[in-house]
Amino acid sequence: MMKVGVIGAGTMGSGICQVLAQSGHQVYLVEQNAEFLNKGLARIEKGYDRNVKKERMTEEEKNAAMANITGIEGVSNLPGDLDLVIEAVVEELDVKKEVFKELDQVCDSKTILATNTSALSISEIAVVTGRPDKVVGMHFFNPVPVMKLVEVIRGAVTSDETFNFVKELAESLGKTPVEVKEAPGFVVNRILIPMINEAAYILMEGIASAEDIDKAMKLGANHPIGPLALADLIGLDVCLSIMETLYTEFGDPKYRPCPLLRKMVRANQLGRKTGQGFFSY
Ligand code: NAI
């Protein structure tokens, strides 16, 4: 079993921690302060409770999984002898760079550093460390305990050893990894987020209601969830920031973010996490 650090206990970090601890790994979950940490731990426990209720795990297994998790305030308080760290803080390059600089100092030289970024450059994050060959993208999908895919992303100088380590870990967690070379949005978000952005344009232009846009894509394209409900699940702030990255990186107007998406993010209508997005929760 491995010792793994998870940085950030938000939507993704808590899901990643939940899956790792359940598989018997020792997880060190890092947040900025006790309040956010406790929120994350409560979310993880709720996830296990749901599994117990559905008889997917026993109460003993839940307790064992919870006992595998150590909450930590601040990256500098992590133990150094970790096999892997998975970073899942906010999707902002400067914040991630700061975290990786600190991780590079705190962690042993053997520790592999992975980022769960949705669209940022792995190479640009890796370059702030003294071990760019040990930096890799490990992109989980929301909700982590349910979604099977992990995009394993090679930065410019990610070594085969690092790539294979993360690929094999993903498989051992019951996930299906796909190999992706670094490029804006990787595979899934390069296709998915412009589709969500287009749905926001259709809503803004008054062409169809939110309910009907989602109904149309569910029944007409056989999608299990409509694009607007999916945006609420992902978080409108995350969607906007991926769109901004695609727009800036490719410089192609087809990626321009929808003004309605921007307006809703400014109004803190971020989807499920704030109770209001394209739909109310
Ligand atoms: P979130 O906003 O729910 O959680 C981020 C957490 O990181 C917050 O709790 C924040 O307090 C914490 N944080 C910020 N700076 C920190 C630091 N220096 N040290 C420790 N903790 C810190 O965000 P979410 O949705 O979990 O996204 C995290 C990452 O995962 C982003 O890069 C995002 O693009 C990516 N992602 C998000 C998906 C989604 O559907 N929400 C899907 C796949 C990837």
UniProtKB/TrEMBL annotation:
<dbReference type="InterPro" id="IPR022694">
    <property type="entry name" value="3-OHacyl-CoA_DH"/>
</dbReference>
<dbReference type="InterPro" id="IPR013328">
    <property type="entry name" value="6PGD_dom2"/>
</dbReference>
<dbReference type="InterPro" id="IPR006108">
    <property type="entry name" value="3HC_DH_C"/>
</dbReference>
<dbReference type="GO" id="GO:0006635">
    <property type="term" value="P:fatty acid beta-oxidation"/>
</dbReference>
<dbReference type="InterPro" id="IPR036291">
    <property type="entry name" value="NAD(P)-bd_dom_sf"/>
</dbReference>
<dbReference type="GO" id="GO:0019605">
    <property type="term" value="P:butyrate metabolic process"/>
</dbReference>
<feature type="domain" description="3-hydroxyacyl-CoA dehydrogenase C-terminal">
    <location>
        <begin position="185"/>
        <end position="281"/>
    </location>
</feature>
<comment type="pathway">
    <text>Lipid metabolism; butanoate metabolism.</text>
</comment>
<feature type="site" description="Important for catalytic activity">
    <location>
        <position position="139"/>
    </location>
</feature>
<dbReference type="GO" id="GO:0008691">
    <property type="term" value="F:3-hydroxybutyryl-CoA dehydrogenase activity"/>
</dbReference>
<dbReference type="Pfam" id="PF02737">
    <property type="entry name" value="3HCDH_N"/>
</dbReference>
<dbReference type="InterPro" id="IPR006176">
    <property type="entry name" value="3-OHacyl-CoA_DH_NAD-bd"/>
</dbReference>
<dbReference type="InterPro" id="IPR006180">
    <property type="entry name" value="3-OHacyl-CoA_DH_CS"/>
</dbReference>
<dbReference type="GO" id="GO:0070403">
    <property type="term" value="F:NAD+ binding"/>
</dbReference>
<feature type="domain" description="3-hydroxyacyl-CoA dehydrogenase NAD binding">
    <location>
        <begin position="3"/>
        <end position="182"/>
    </location>
</feature>
<comment type="similarity">
    <text>Belongs to the 3-hydroxyacyl-CoA dehydrogenase family.</text>
</comment>
<dbReference type="Pfam" id="PF00725">
    <property type="entry name" value="3HCDH"/>
</dbReference>
<keyword id="KW-0560">Oxidoreductase</keyword>
<dbReference type="InterPro" id="IPR008927">
    <property type="entry name" value="6-PGluconate_DH-like_C_sf"/>
</dbReference>
<protein>
    <recommendedName>
        <fullName>3-hydroxybutyryl-CoA dehydrogenase</fullName>
    </recommendedName>
</protein>
